[in-house]
Amino acid sequence: MKKKVHVIHHTHWDLEWYFTHNESFVQLAYHLDEVMSALENNEISYYLLDGQMSILDDYLQSFPEQKTRLKKLVQAGKLWIGPWYTQTDELIISGESIVRNLTLGMELAEELGGYMNIGYLPDSFGQSKDMPKIYQGLGIDRTVFWRGLPQEKTRDREFYWQAEDGSKVLAANIKDGYFVGVGLIHSDQTQELMTQIDDGAVGQHLVLPVGGDQRYVDFNLRERINFYNQKLSDYELKESNYEELFSELEKEELTTIEGEFISSSVSKIHRSIYSSRYDHKYLNDKLERRMIYQVEPLVLMAEKLGIANKQGLIDRIWKLLAKNQAHDSAGGCNSDKTNRIIRERFIEADQLSYSIVDYLTRKISESQKKVCDHQVSIFNTLPWEVTKTVKINVSTEFEDIQLKNTAGEALSFDVLARNKEYSGEIRREEAAQDPYKYYYIHELAVEVTVPALSFVNYFVEESQQSSMVISEDKQDYIENDYYKLSYKKGQLHLFDKKMQQSYDNILSFEDGGDEGDTYDYSPAHADRVFDLTLTGSKRKAFCGEHYQELILTGTWDLPKDLKERAEGICQQTQDYELKITLKKGSKHLECHLTIDNQALDHRMRAIINLPFAHQYSYTDTPFGTVKREAEDPHLKDWQDIGWREEPTAIYPMLKWVNVHDDKNSWTVFAKGIKEYQLIGENHRQLALTLFRSVGFLGRPDLLRRPGVASGNAFKYIPTPDSQLLEKLTFKFAISLEQDYNPARLAQSYLDYALSLPFYQIQSLNLFTTTLKYFVSNTLKEKICSPQNISLKAPDLVFSSLRKNKLYGGWDLRVYNPSTQAVQGENFILSEQELRYEFVDLKGIALTERQKNSKINLGDFRAGQIKTVHFID
Q: Which keywords does this chain's UniProt record carry (predicted)?
């Protein structure tokens, strides 16, 4: 019996790459004419438009008259679109961003007649272990992908891929790439092509994807299929689509495998792209935090108080982020002109998102029933009570201040800085300005307690006693309830007060050459790695009751470029400032490094020296955690067995990375840093890649990746902007515990990384935010501090709180990060009775609606996600 070959005619339409989105759009405008005409005239039977909707979203903005034509082809099953908005990265993009990407794509595709219900990611640089449960949560039970599948797991092309919660999808692995079928068009080597795609196929049905990057319609497709069919005796080719293919694959007996797929055994995986264009990764991380943990919950809080929910504005920001989270865009492996456009989208999303927070906090603050001058409202957008030390700025006409709560009790606080500013009309000569129109901006550190999804008010009053700014202390240490950090002889030493344990030289830095490209780190062919110590640094300490900070400044001497590095010349000075902060009540040793990078082709890493040996690391994934080996077993023989790149144990991370034994658990939380590696003797060092500085999109013959250049193999494409010759900041924190608890780590991360929005009632300073300058009406119905739901779920991770587009009301999502089942006491609590049901990731009800003021979240399988929809 002949094997059936399903010829899938498609294009892989990279949103942007070495070309910009604008440049490729011109081709798209004409390309879609060819596609629609070919389908309408029956020159081809089917066409797959790369599984992403962003290109059609942009196309219809310019050509809205084509919507009916496109819809007719989609409904006829000829043109296959969706389900994605863009072809996302899966490893350094948050789970909630991935869900938003898919739901945006599905909503747009539904308007055009429906989406291809297949998780189609033909080029993402590795596959997250959480994708099966994301897909199943959105009603998808099939997937197509190319990169990352380890040969040790399976050599089959078709199998079931299962997450730890039991979610399972039928997977087709296009091991030879989405472009392998171009051989059908251009080569007469019929048997060779069939042998290639048959290798590893389980049954009688094979897939042959015919397409490529921005590829035109192959009008001779049928002619070439007929040619192959005449030459072949054991295979029969036919025009097909992935729905037909999967309907046949479902009849086969297939194996089931689990885990993440980040192996280079079959394809390049770019296991160090996580540190390319760090500046973009930092911006993406900041915007994800703001959108998920501030904007979306705050919009719901405001809606409950009578302020309209602007979902279109929220979707606009998520579309900007989704474009920047496409695999090439997220990776940073683009031309400079493309990366500049990506950065502009980040800036647009940043301005929109912080303006939403500014507008809503002001509207709520000014619309309260009781409002007075210098009243400060501090907001908590998380579904549990928060107690933490925060930094706020207040403006007053008086220099000395006191802070009181609603009970009239004076609060203790630290004044970190005070600046005198002018509020009148500015004049060329400062002496001509009105001396009675000056005011003071005070930066304060104060411990506050704010109820779940609510706000509290504080009052700034003039003090009869001097409120002094914290002065510089002549000491080389800082401390709080948990730690004492000391500087001695060029090293940082940490004392854990709870464990009564000292740790020497906990933090240092290193700099090595990077003769790689925007895809991959690769050491210089003539490399030298330099230890960057803190010896000789100038030190300042500021020690308040709530906030203590040690500031170290100095200069590191580095090679200017690869030539100087090879010669051992270090004439490029690198100024640095390292701020280390300890806040009252915090277990986080917060580190903030600032440098002005002027060196080329190098990689800088922060080195955390660990007190114990270990063989594994643990880090968070989009909806879970993963345990990884500190060293790949094929590190020595990867070239002998034909792997595509060196399997260095450089790994991606989202928010944190942990190492632990039975007595110690060390975690590093990070803002925008997405790459780590365990190094040193017995892997007793954790290296965070701060950034890589490289100058080409692709380079050939790398030490870690021999052979042709990634990206464009035929031309060097310089990317001087990717050298990041600019001021760079890096933010991370070290936290010590006795045991490893991933749910607790997730909450601890939010305590570290998420600020509490605030707003002060005052008219002295019209520039506290951009929108402060504008006049604004208060609400007609005056409000008071609301009582909202509270999440009591110590075993679970809070993932999101957002509006349900289908039913209205709120969707609260949590998941079990553990690889073990959870049967603890986990609840959503409310002061009043809620109507609720469990829903899927789309927001569609899975259970009957019930009523209660206490929602039992129930038992959780390992890694399971649950979403509760409720209306009060």
A: Glycosidase, Hydrolase, Metal-binding
